[in-house]
Amino acid sequence: MERIEEKLMILADAAKYDVSCSSSGSKRKNIGGIGDASSSGICHTYTEDGRCVSLLKILLTNHCIYDCAFCVSRKSNDVKRAAFTAEEVVDLTMNFYRRNYIEGLFLSSGIFKNADFTMERLLCIVKKLRLEERYNGYIHLKTIPGASEELIQEAGLYVDRMSINLEMPTEAGLKLVAPEKSHDAVRKPLQFVNTKIQTFQNEKKLIKHTPTFVPAGQSTQMVIGATPENDWEIMSVADEFYKKYQLKRVYYSGYIPINNSDAFLPQIGTNPPLIRENRLYQTDWLLRFYNFNLNEILNPAFTQLDLDIDPKLSWALRNLHLFPVDVNTADYQTIIRVPGIGRQSAMKIVSARKYGSLREYQLKKMGIAFNRAKHFIICADSAVSLGFKYAPQLKNIILQTGNSKYKLQTPENQLKLF
Amino acid sequence: MNYVFDGSYYGFLCCVFECFEMKEWQAVPVDENRFQPDIFQPHRTIFTDVDKAQRIQKGLKSKFGKSLTDDMYRAFLSEDLLAWQAAYHVMVQLFKGQTNVLENFGDSQVLYFHQTLKKVSRERHRMKAFIRFSKSNDGLFYALIEPDFNVLPLILSFFKNRYADQPWIIYDAKRKYGFYYDTITISEIEIDTTEQKNLQSTGLTIALDERDELFKRLWKQYFKSTNIEARKNMKLHLQHVPKRYWKYLIEKQK
User: Fold this and answer.
1) Taking CB atoms and an 8 Å cutoff, what residues of chain B touch A47?
2) Phi-psi label, residue B23: left if phi above 0, alpha if psi -120 to 50, beta otherwise
3) CA distances from B156 to A31, B133, B235 (A)
4) What distance in Å separates residue B194's CA from the closest CA in chain A?
5) Are residues A69 and A199 in the same domain?
6) B170 and B202 both lie in a single domain
7) From the DSSP assignment, how many helices (H) and strands (E) are in chain B?
8) Virtual CA dihedral for A345, A351, A357, A358, nearest 10 degrees?
9) Which end of chain A, C or N, has fewer beta carbons within 10 A?
10) Do B103 and B142 sit in the same domain of this protein?
């Protein structure tokens, strides 16, 4: 095995816990060179864990001065260390890109020496790609917390997306696993970059040739399941960050145990909380695309999402007085709140009903999850329902007729006899 | 009434023309290669007339805009007879004056038309993602594909814009044609069967760039390393990368 292969193995392995892989949101054009950004993003392949691969996601180095308990590259962890040279990163990126393997580069790094020193190295690679190789593809760069604003601003002129990870949902949780880090160190650069983005966008309205600055916006990531925060706390933080820093995405990453040295973390062999992670993403989507308020889905009285049913269904079951909804008269905003109906189907319903009342068979064809939705809607030919169903009853019916991959092995309300 | 046409896009448009000329609103277009005569259904052969077809195309463009005109072509590229009939139905309705027929998702033909567009668009997007170029020793990047639908014409501008400074060939092995880009213009290429046999018998005729093997190996290595074993989910993997595409995906080869 050549050394470059070994380095790629080590540094891709260390970078894979960063889940962000989106390559969307940038409209960078090819200006006399190679590459452009596809605004919808392109996933070039998917690994066997089902996650998309659109960017070459690597660390510049996994040498790190910090000792964060949840991180593979922590100082005290006994793993092979490696570091790419700037030329190697550029060579890999360009050759993968030219063969259409990847959509761009995701560059992160362990902190060596200090924040500024690391940030400078990252910036140097990005500039090499843009200026020497005339590369116009996607670049996602990690902002190194604590790096100087001049460096961050300069980087922003060359990259498409920047991100800093919150790591743990709450300050208390973070102090537990990474005493040297703080949420403030994340908030400050997020705030700084966000202000800059706004400034550049305003300038663009007046002067057409304003350079782009982080056109695909910022994102962050939280590890879940390592520290004891509940779903309500996690989503409150996400909600706040979406609103305050206009983040494009908040990623939730189920904690995967890497060693047994800290007793307070889940130990090796514990399954990562995949279902919980999925439910958090669903909630995230409801907040951003379905006009839900966080306190409708999670609040101090209801702090943990159901694992066996999705958050929209769970909300509907707690608010049965709002249903059934007549799909032939209700407005779009009401229809998208029906479990089993998404935005696309709701759009189709609103558009199609101008041509005549909609019937069940038409809704089924449009692609709604009819088994779930039928309890919450009325169509032109719906049978008159016989009596009111209580929420637990309804939940059971839906769970039994559906074939959700998340079905619990035993129903909650019935104990096994033997 | 069945309209039997030659299977070309212009032939398809001529069926619409014929329908209005003869006022045969119940007619259905059928591709001659897939046509089976039916005693209960009369049929007529429609000859492809470029002028007529272009009149239909112009009419579509001026009345309903470019994107809808393109949609008709995209639906046609699905090579699905039912989708062709749905597109034909939509066109006839449009020209008859039902200008918002496309909003009627309750109509099964209209819905099928939309679903076909979605399928074609998904395949087009997949090809943007799954094409893997190999580099030959003279600097040419070439790739083979076998898409479900005939989407090659839809992805050319994407590759032209993105890989503007490198010559490339994308060849559809299923439909036996491809396109060559010489860093200035794109031209269509065809390899006929005798040529293909020659190519196969002489073995690899294209010598690879000396570092091409290395980058293929590195890509496979990256694909392996970036996978998280604890999260393994083959069902999801197969859903995103169906087996029929593996043939040309370097990372899925042994």
Assistant:
1) 223, 226-228, 237
2) left
3) 18, 14, 32
4) 29
5) yes
6) yes
7) 9, 8
8) -20
9) C
10) no
The last residue of one of the domains, among B170, B187, B208, is B208
Strand-pair partners of A45: A53
Measure CB to CB from residue B162 to each of A30, A92, A352 and give the nearest one.
A30
pLDDT attached to residue B7: 92
Count of domains observed in chain A: 2
Confidence of residue B38 (pLDDT cuts 50, 70, 90): confident
Report the residue of B142, B156, B211, B231 to disrupt the A interface, i.e. the one with the largest count of A CBs within 10 Å. Answer: B231
Would you place residue B192 in the very low, low, confident or very high pLDDT band (cuts 50, 70, 90)? Answer: confident
When scoring B103, B133, B162, B216 by the number of chain A Cβ atoms within 10 A, the one with the most, hence best to mutate, is B162
Q: Quick one: average pLDDT of A218-238?
A: 94
Q: Are residues A12 and A116 in the same domain?
A: yes
Same domain, A135 and A212: yes
The Cα–Cα gap between A245 and B47 comes to 62
C-alpha dihedral over B67, B72, B78, B79, to 10 degrees? -160
Distance CA A108, CA A113 (A): 15
Domain presence at residue A305: no
Same-domain status, B95 and B189 = no
The one-letter amino acid code at A38 reads: S
Residues of B in contact with A40 (CB under 8 A): 125
* pLDDT at residue B232, rounded to an integer: 92
Whether residues A292 and A315 share a domain: the answer is no
Residues B89 and B36 in one domain: yes
Residues A46-102 have pLDDT tens digits of 999 999 999 999 999 999 999 988 888 999 888 999 999 999 999 999 999 999 999
Is A14 a member of any domain?
A: yes
Closest chain A residue to the Cα of B111, Cα to Cα:
A366
| ipTM over 0.90 threshold | yes
Same structural domain, B95 and B198? no
Instruction: Tell me whether residues B226 and A47 touch, CB distance under 8 A.
Output: yes
Q: Are residues A361 and A396 in the same domain?
A: yes
pLDDT confidence of residue A265: 85
Of B88, B123, B158, the residue at which a domain comes to its end is B123
Which residues on chain A are in Cβ contact (under 8 Å) with B162? 30, 34-36, 137
Average pLDDT over chain B, rounded to an integer: 92
Asked whether residue A283 falls in the same domain as residue A345, the answer is no
Question: Residue B194's pLDDT band (boundaries 50, 70, 90)?
Answer: low
Mean predicted confidence (pLDDT) in A236-250: 95
Chain B residue nearest residue A9, CA to CA: B225
Closest residue in B to A405 (Cα–Cα):
B235
**Has residue A210 got a pLDDT over 90?**
no
**Is residue A215 included in any domain, yes or no?**
yes
Chain A residues inside the 8 Å CB shell of B125: 40, 42
Residue type, A272: P
Tokens coding A337: 């709140």
List Cβ neighbours of A414 (8 Å cut-off, separation of 6 or more).
none
| Chain B CB contacts of A365 below 8 Å | 108, 111
Domain residue limits at A362: 311-401
